[in-house]
């Protein structure tokens, strides 16, 4: 491999030292999955240190708290997950807060990582940030080709700025900071709050209540929009691979294939089956559908990892439902 600059040589040297990985947003859906995968892979056994953070360790919207956190842990690598996150309906209500909170978090984390000499940062975008008016399938080159869907423009533009910052840190300082672009994620430790969360945990929570009350399961919208879903534990395995092996600045989509795309109605059917719900399913078409589809290509991922296997969707939904029922009292809802 041709090494261009002293910076890259220094970075390569640093990478030979054991990694000390700071995971911002480590107590959320994705963070908990990465923690489970790292433990299963014995990551900490290789002299590595993994530190999983919550907002109680530092409010990353605050630069002084961010700096104090990095001074304390002195990470060599960062997986940056911390964000204000929510489903369609919370995004529609709070676009300004999604913009401000995430822009402050992202700028504080990336600038502090640079100042502290962090070798690599892997940040997190989302397939919902792509242009609303686009050709399909969407790929990594299309992020800035037009405005995002109006329902979540605050979150989308804040996330797009991570890609702009990564390119700027490379151009001006030779930093090899990158990002992944997951599609809709679900799994254990998700946010099951019905008003603020995403569709899958929302339907699981609503079906659980409907079963107990003998009432119908209310699916919001028409049920016709289409989504690709990635199980959090599959995403976690891919995240660890990106940290260790992926060296581009350009982001990479982490998603199941286009052929795995399902309708919201099919999602509801999978939840009904997994929970053994026997009641009526009704569609509240007074509620928004949001983006009709955001079909993303995982061709770039497949070029790197042609043999990676995803957990079958129905199995992942069943495992998530079982987790929710078993942890109902402590789950975020
Ligand atoms: P999540 O379950 O809501 O977890 C968010 C994490 O960020 C929590 O650990 C939370 O800490 C932390 N956090 C929030 N605000 C913070 C602040 N001001 N300072 C410090 N930490 C803060 O989110 P997630 O679903 O795991 O998402 C993780 C990443 O994946 C995010 O960047 C998100 O944009 C991205 N993503 C998610 C999806 C999805 O469908 N879920 C899809 C694509 C991309 P507390 O636990 O203390 O609140
Ligand atoms: O996961 P979700 O809230 O967000 O899914 P998006 C919204 C779709 O599911 C809409 C339907 O078509 C809703 O009408 N739906 C049906 C429900 N029942 C429910 C329910 O009980 N709860 C919810 N939430 N939806 C988000 C972006 O878009 O994707 C975020 O807004 C984020 O920024 C996330 O990036 C990954 O998939 O539409």
From TrEMBL:
The lineage of its organism: Eukaryota, Metazoa, Chordata, Craniata, Vertebrata. Gene3D superfamilies: NAD(P)-binding Rossmann-like Domain, UDP-galactose 4-epimerase, domain 1. This is GDP-L-fucose synthase. Keywords: Isomerase, NADP, Oxidoreductase. Belongs to the NAD(P)-dependent epimerase/dehydratase family. Fucose synthase subfamily. Residues 21-255 form the NAD-dependent epimerase/dehydratase domain. It is an enzyme of class 1 (oxidoreductase). One of its GO terms (biological process) is 'de novo' GDP-L-fucose biosynthetic process. PANTHER family: GDP-L-FUCOSE SYNTHASE. Its EC number is 1.1.1.271. Pathway: Nucleotide-sugar biosynthesis; GDP-L-fucose biosynthesis via de novo pathway; GDP-L-fucose from GDP-alpha-D-mannose: step 2/2. It comes from Paramormyrops kingsleyae. Transmembrane segments: none annotated. SUPFAM superfamilies: NAD(P)-binding Rossmann-fold domains. GO terms for molecular function: GDP-L-fucose synthase activity; isomerase activity. InterPro entries: Epimerase_deHydtase, GDP_fucose/colitose_synth, NAD(P)-bd_dom_sf. Catalyzes the two-step NADP-dependent conversion of GDP-4-dehydro-6-deoxy-D-mannose to GDP-fucose, involving an epimerase and a reductase reaction.
